[in-house]
Amino acid sequence: MDATDRRELARRALDGYVSGPAAPIQATARALAKVDTALAVVLVEGISDQIALETLAVGRGRDLEAERVVVVPIGGAHAIGRFLTSLGPLGTGVRLAGLCDLHEEEIFRRGLVTARVGSPGNRADLEDLGFHVCVDDLEDELIRAVGPAAVEALFDSQGDLGSFRSLQSQPAWRGREPGAQLRRFLGSGARRKLRYARLLVEAAVVRDVVPRPLDALLAAV
User: CB within 8 A of 167, min separation 6: which ones?
Assistant: First the structure.
């Protein structure tokens, strides 16, 4: 597969989403512009989480825009308190939900308490409020769900397997556990992380192996 073909595949995977250095700011602004008319607001850490949830919704036959469900990438877990405060009291019947990584669980919990959204003392309390936790992160959840061999096959279909093999041959990653290698590869480029968020969720839907946190989050809204 030549570079032109790879670029076209990457473009298709990111169709409908912003990318580039200003992407986080643009994606957040685009989402916040819809909050005033929303029936549900979902706070996620980044654009890849947004893409994953919206891709799952399509796979489940749902139209989040028509349902007035707005997924807001907040730019990292530490922004949760600021976003909850800036949103202020949501209208009657408006649902609030969210998704975070394992290492940010406590940050989300404190943010919800400070904003008086609830008093979650544990993960079960978080889930009751509509907030779900990925172990260790969404990429890890998706790799485990789809399986390393299937993820490598997906890399091959996108012309990325050679680059992945190069990473595996590096001294720092040679012989490491496949899941760790796959996560490192996905996280080694901003555009790569975004486009594989869509591709991995599509693969998980086809195989009916969608990670529980992502599936439960969609069900909550």
Answer: 173, 181, 184, 185, 188
CA–CA separation, 123 vs 142, rounded Å?
20
3-class DSSP string for the chain:
CCHHHHHHHHHHHCCCCCCCCCHHHHHHHHHHCCHHHCCEEEEECCHHHHHHHHHHHHHCCCCHHHHCEEEEECCCHHHHHHHHHHHCCCCCCCEEEEEEEHHHHHHHHHHHHHCCCCCCCCHHHHHHCCEEEECCCHHHHHHHHHCHHHHHHHHHHCCCHHHHHHHHHCCCCCCCCHHHHHHHHHHCCHHHHHHHHHHHHHHHHHHCCCCHHHHHHHHHC
Tens digits of per-residue pLDDT, 47-102?
A: 999 999 999 999 999 999 999 999 999 999 999 998 888 876 666 678 999 999 99
CA distance 124 to 95: 18
Structural domains in the chain plus CATH codes: 17-139+210-220 (3.40.50)
Residue 36, φ and ψ in degrees, nearest 5 = -60, -25
